[in-house]
Each structure stands twice: as structure tokens, then as C-alpha cells.
Specification:
Layout: H1 9-22, E1 26-32, E2 42-47, H2 51-67, E3 74-78, E4 83-87, E5 91-96, H3 98-104, H4 106-109, E6 114-119
Parallel strand pairs: 2-5
Antiparallel strand pairs: 1-2, 1-6, 3-4, 4-5
Helix pairs in contact: 1-2
Length: 120
């Protein structure tokens, strides 16, 4: 059973956006899917340029979310494979290399979600 974080999920999602921005991820999107999904309220979608950047960003997001009381329930993908998914319950983080982001097209699949933040 999932235990709720001490911080609202929107604030956790915005924290992920801040960490991604600090690590120079590009095309960062905070997508509000509240009401469209039973498994999450927010997606944070980012593009990274290198495997090293993806590994570093993954570690920093995990550290900051844990510091705020969020639990990492599931981690999928590998930085060497060009994509990583981090499931923090109400906040799901998608990190892609450029080609992988185009291939998976998360924003198109969830096009009814509300774009709350976009950082180019």
C-alpha cells in the first residue's frame, strides 16, 4: 500500500521540474493528468542529451524526492537505453533521449492532459 508523501503531489512534480531544469534537461513538460488517470496525477517529461546526464538527473531526482518524503515505487528503463521512468505514485517522471522522446510520443498519447509548465 502506498503511503502519502508529506508534500502535495503538485509540489513534488514542480520539484522534479526544478531539478531537471537545474541539470540542463531540455523540453521539460509538467503534464496534469489528474482525472484522466487512475494511477497518477502528474507526468514530468524531459529530454536529456547524454547517458551521463540521464544517470545524474535520475540520481538527483531520486535523492530530492526521497528528501521530501516521496517513495519511489517503481523504476524502469536504463539510462544507457535512452529512457528512464520513475514512479513516485501521483508523480511519474519520464526521461528520454531525443530520438526516444519522439518515438514514444507521451504528450500525444496524453493529449487531453493540461500542460502546467513547459521549459524549452
Amino acid at each position: 500500500m502506498r503511503k502519502p508523501s508529506q508534500i502535495k503531489s503538485e509540489n513534488l512534480a514542480r520539484l522534479v521540474v526544478d531539478v531537471a531544469s537545474d541539470k540542463q534537461a531540455s523540453d521539460i513538460v509538467l503534464l496534469d493528468i489528474n482525472g484522466l488517470s487512475d494511477f497518477a496525477d502528474y507526468f514530468v517529461i524531459t529530454t536529456v542529451e547524454t547517458k551521463r546526464q540521464m544517470k545524474s538527473l535520475t540520481e538527483d531526482i531520486e535523492t530530492e524526492m526521497e528528501r521530501c518524503g516521496a517513495t519511489l515505487y517503481h523504476k524502469e528503463g536504463i539510462d544507457a537505453g535512452g529512457w528512464v521512468l520513475l514512479d513516485f505514485g501521483d508523480v511519474v517522471v519520464h526521461m528520454f533521449g531525443l530520438e526516444e522522446r519522439d518515438y514514444f510520443g507521451i504528450e500525444e498519447v496524453w493529449d487531453q492532459g493540461v500542460e502546467a509548465v513547459r521549459i524549452q
